[in-house]
Amino acid sequence: MYVPHPIVSVPHPEMRARAEPVVPALEEIATASDSRLNGDGQHHPGRPTAGRVASPPANCVERVSVPDDFEAVYERFCDEQWTDGLPIVPPTEARVARMLAYSDLDPSCSLGPMPPRWGQATIAKLAVNAVMAGCKPEYFPVVVAAVRAILDQRFNLYGVQGTTNPASPILILNGPIARELEVNARGNLFGPGWRANATIGRAIRLIMTTVGGGVPQQADRSTLGNPAKYTCCFAENEADSPWEPLHVERGFAADTSTVTAFGGAAPANIIEKSKTAAEMLRTIARAMAVPGSNNMFMSQEALVVLGPEHAAIAAREGFDKRRIRETLLEQAIIPFERIGKSNAEVLAVWRAKCIEEQGGRRTLRVVEKPDHILLVVAGGAGNHSASIPGWYSRSVTLPIARADGSPLRSVRELEMG
């Protein structure tokens, strides 16, 4: 079912008239059995593979025959809407087999159905897309962990795939595997130049398109999109951070490697040349609290990427991550006089828990609690940080692990069998 736009910007009676025909379909979906979700109604946990995989079983992926010519392959994949518009690496059986060698899961094992098409995210399909994206085989355990994270119900992938918002998965790596794979955590981490960053994030986008059906201007209804929808993957700069990293904050051991999936908009740069923590954090808070941004309307969480120089200023004055979050929560507010009457009516429903009133003046916090601000240290030299507004999504952090759930210490463990 599709409700034609515009929706929010039309008068309430017209909005109701457009939405009401969809209600019976929503009720049917909400009360239906979950047999569609697992294909046969059964739960299929990951099964280890006995020995190395020579090639994916014939029923795992669709096989297509294309002339042995790069341009012919590219044109075919573009015609089928199997790409993001950029050239791909042809996923031959040999290349897919090499990718599968870095997983101890059976190629036919599904991590679950991926919305909105509800295609099964089998390990074989993930390997095909990782090849297409240009991933080295060693990157594949990270791709698998990232797919598990975005399929977690808390992430709300169904919403991320179909919204008119530019929201997209932002992937943050922590732990020794990020360093082993040379995932960039320093200068230009949101930009070009690092294969791991570029191709791991791109693999997730291709999987969301080919398996989940998030085809632009079809299921993907984003009004404008954003460049991070091609790829956005980086590592926390643990070496230059004065505090414990994100995954340790979330209960993982420092030597456990993790992937965090955050659903948000594109990074917005913050230039701040103050020499005190108070001035610096005030600027960052104001940059987070921009009228019209996701942080005003719907951020369940907000992500701040603190440059190492900014982190050092705060640490010198005794700030830890908790105190920074509390300061940002207190100062990242939008006065209602900057919001407008119509938006205020919407926010009174959507974000009532973030609205405060004192002395007849109403303000809106960008998130509800300090813990809803994710704080990571990353980047290189310079007086820059970044705000990444969230969406109706909760971030999910998972270990990069074997089929039995035990954390991988190195991707080479899979190569050795």
How many separate helices?
A: 17
Q: Sketch the major β-sheet.
A: 4 strands, mixed
Number of strands: 13
Calculate the mean pLDDT score and round it.
91
- What percent of residues adopt helix (DSSP H or I)? 25-40%
Give, in order, the helices and strands. HHHHHEEHHHEHHEHEEHHEHHEHEEEEEH
Beta content: 5-15%
Determine Rg (CA atoms, Å): 22 Å
Ends apart, CA distance between termini: 47 Å
User: What's the overall geometry?
Assistant: globular
Poorly predicted runs are 35-54
Q: What's the multimeric state?
A: single chain
In spatial order, strands of the major sheet run: 4-3-5-13
Helix/strand-derived category reads alpha+beta
Structure commentary:
- It is a single chain.
- By secondary structure, the chain is of the alpha+beta class.
- The chain contains 17 helices and 13 strands.
- The chain has a four-stranded mixed sheet.
- A hairpin with a 2-residue loop joins strand 9 and strand 10.
- It is globular.
- The termini are far apart.
- About 5% of the residues have low confidence.
